[in-house]
Amino acid sequence: MTIVLYNDQFVSREECTVDIEDRGYQFGDGVYEVIRIYSGKMFTGKEHITRLFESAEKIRLELPFTKEELTENLYKLVEKNNLHTGTIYLQVTRGASARQHQFPLEGKPVFTAYTKEVARPEAQMNEGVTAIIAEDVRWLRCDIKSLNLLGNLLAKQEAYSQGSFEAILHREGTVTEGSSSNAFIIKNNKLFTHPATNLILNGITRRELIRLCPGIGLEVKEEAFTLDDLQAADEVFIASTTAEIMPIVQIDGKAVGNAAPGEWTQKLQSVFKASIQEQCGELVKVER
Ligand code: PDD
Question: Scanning 61, 135, 192, 224, which has the fewest C-beta atoms within 10 Å of its C-beta?
Answer without folding.
Answer: 135
